[in-house]
Amino acid sequence: MSRALGCRFSRDRRRLSVFLSRSQAADILEDVRANGTIAVVASHPVTHRSYQFKGTDAAVTPLGRGEPARIRAYVETFLRVVEPEGYPPRLIRALFAGPRETPEDWVAVTFTPTSAFSQTPGPSAGDPLWDAP
Fold this sequence. Notes:
Elements lengths: L5 E4 L6 E6 L4 H10 L2 E6 L6 E6 L3 E3 L5 H16 L6 H12 L5 E6 L3 E4 L15
Antiparallel strand pairs: 1-2, 2-6, 3-4, 4-7, 5-6
């Protein structure tokens, strides 16, 4: 398990790229290279609204143009969202300190979501977001 540094959908909304630190997610990247499967959970830290995306064609890819700036913006946005909840900025920056400061360590894992589920706590947790083909 690893904390992502952000994500983006492709322009056609068919593929998802998740940004990871090579050094912090080495085991995950090795597994993706070995079998192409991945499960990603995205959660809003205040509302806990959460979604899980799964795929079987994941590949480790280099970052595209503009993605280092997207990662930095994600970290700053995360900080602004959780600080009012009582989390000290120093703590949040420490969570991202290593990867945030070393863009050459960043990589994308890109995949086609084949299934997606609500993971928001409550009675609908685990419900599929769409019917399988």
